[in-house]
Structure to design on (507 residues):
């Protein structure tokens, strides 16, 4: 039997979601037919909605009618807008014990001498400032495989996944308070990341972000090598020194061996980008089911993108293990309100044009779908951008909604795997952590199969349940953590996507 043309998410909803493009006259509910074409993933009203009346999806408010809406009409930006409404934070009322598996799942990982666990084995080249970015790239390029000639400088080091330069556009011309602190915390997190067997940081020498200050503030002594272009004597000499460092590090890096390790050693960054109206129906809840499985196996998941949780935070505070944890999340929302107001923006500037074309109308609607990635377990901690994640379970990290910036913070916090849902078709990687791409719908998956690892459109097609798809994702997490390459890794994504959060004035 073919699936129904629309998807009902909650009995209280006044809108349904088009499973595919619906022509005018399509019956969508008893006594209700579309009065105009409804695009795939978009919303259709099933009852009259008066001006100012809340519009509900997922049983939650996603906006308010800005004009009268009749049954069968398309509900989107032309008749749905933002509005204020009271939120009951009800701190901790939904906290329940998380049942754990007696025998945790395992994957073949790499245990470092200090006990940290890696899913990949890279040598990293970090930069203190944009002025040393090109030189860092020159060093990494010496060890890059040539896809045309087949030449592979790392052929004798099969246990090394690569040499990657992670460059950025800041490090100088910046104020020496919060912006510098965030940059150093991000670089420190990457310098300590388990997926790096060795790290060198390249600086120019006269930048605000002095390597000495970075080393001291982040307690990196003994963890990385430092090279300054001005001190060494220019580009050629610095490249030679950087190449010598990498060649020296390769022998030790290649000695690693994978061994069976508990899934509790996995910390997974949860991301979404290029979302559509199906994101909150298929890929995000399926990733949520996988997240619940990982947490039950003792692992950790990190939800972020604070502006894309705005309006749904009251559902997360109910799961906070303490009032203090819940209050930290609410405080983040207040900071973002003040931040956007100060910058002359508004929180509803998100969703993006692509999100809206895919059926998402307001940030409230986007947030309700985005938070589904974190599943249903307790919120155990709320941390700042790029702050080390130390608690096991579901953790929230403060980040912008922009995917590369958000994922950079999560990996700096310790994520050794990334799961990234997309409905429009985002291409992305996040070295040194492998990134699994989850498609929300089958047409996009087939169109971009070279980039997508999992088709969650099977849920919309009626071929499997959310839980079944979540199990597939969880199984792929373990295979990927064991070394199986992702689609983005096959294209060598992940270096250019390094993007620390830039705050404050550029001086």
């Amino acid at each position: 039997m073919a699936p129904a043309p629309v998807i009902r998410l909650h009995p209280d909803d006044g809108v349904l979601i088009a499973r595919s493009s619906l022509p005018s006259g399509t019956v969508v509910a008893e006594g209700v037919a579309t009065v105009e074409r409804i695009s795939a993933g978009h919303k259709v009203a099933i009852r009259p909605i008066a001006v100012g009346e809340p519009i509900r999806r997922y049983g939650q408010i996603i906006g308010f009618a800005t004009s009268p809406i009749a049954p069968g009409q398309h509900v989107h930006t032309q008749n749905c807008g933002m509005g204020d409404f009271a939120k009951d934070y009800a701190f901790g009322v939904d906290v329940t014990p998380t049942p754990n598996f007696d025998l945790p799942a395992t994957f073949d990982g790499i245990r470092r001498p200090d006990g940290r666990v890696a899913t990949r084995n890279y040598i990293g080249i970090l930069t203190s400032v944009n002025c040393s970015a090109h030189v860092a790239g020159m060093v990494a390029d010496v060890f890059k495989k040539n896809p045309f000639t087949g030449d592979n400088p790392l052929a004798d080091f099969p246990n090394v996944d690569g040499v990657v330069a992670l460059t950025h556009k800041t490090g100088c011309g910046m104020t020496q308070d919060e912006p510098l602190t965030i940059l150093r915390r991000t670089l420190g997190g990457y310098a300590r990341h388990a997926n790096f067997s060795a790290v060198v940081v390249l600086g120019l020498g006269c930048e605000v972000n002095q390597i000495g200050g970075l080393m001291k503030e982040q307690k990196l002594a003994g963890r990385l090598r430092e090279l300054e272009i001005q001190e060494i004597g220019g580009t050629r000499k610095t490249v030679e020194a950087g190449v010598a460092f990498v060649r020296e590090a390769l022998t030790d890096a290649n000695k690693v061996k994978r061994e069976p390790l508990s899934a509790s050693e996995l910390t997974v960054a949860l991301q979404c980008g290029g979302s559509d109206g199906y994101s909150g129906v298929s890929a995000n809840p399926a990733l949520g089911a996988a997240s619940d499985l990982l947490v039950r196996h003792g692992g950790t998941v990190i939800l972020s993108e604070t502006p894309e949780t705005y309006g749904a935070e009251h559902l997360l505070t109910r799961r906070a293990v303490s009032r203090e944890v819940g209050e930290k999340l609410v405080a983040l929302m207040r900071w973002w309100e003040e931040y956007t107001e100060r910058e002359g923006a508004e929180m509803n500037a998100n969703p993006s044009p692509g999100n809206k074309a895919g059926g998402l109308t307001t940030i409230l609607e986007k947030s309700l779908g985005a938070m589904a990635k974190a599943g249903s377990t307790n919120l155990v901690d709320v941390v700042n951008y790029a702050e080390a994640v130390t608690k096991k379970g579901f953790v929230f990290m403060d980040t912008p909604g922009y995917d590369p910036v958000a994922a950079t913070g999560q990996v700096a916090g310790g994520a050794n795997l990334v799961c990234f849902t997309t409905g429009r078709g985002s291409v992305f990687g996040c070295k040194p952590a492998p990134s699994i791409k989850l498609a929300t719908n089958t047409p996009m998956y087939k169109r971009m199969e070279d980039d997508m690892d999992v088709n969650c459109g099977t849920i919309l097609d009626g071929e499997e349940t959310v839980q079944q798809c979540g199990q597939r994702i969880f199984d792929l997490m373990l295979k990927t953590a064991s070394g199986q390459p992702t689609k983005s890794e096959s294209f060598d994504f992940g270096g250019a996507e390094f993007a620390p959060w830039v705050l404050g004035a550029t001086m």
User: Anything to note?
Assistant: Residues 263-490 form one domain. The two ends are 63 Å apart (CA to CA). The first strand starts at residue 6 and ends at 7.
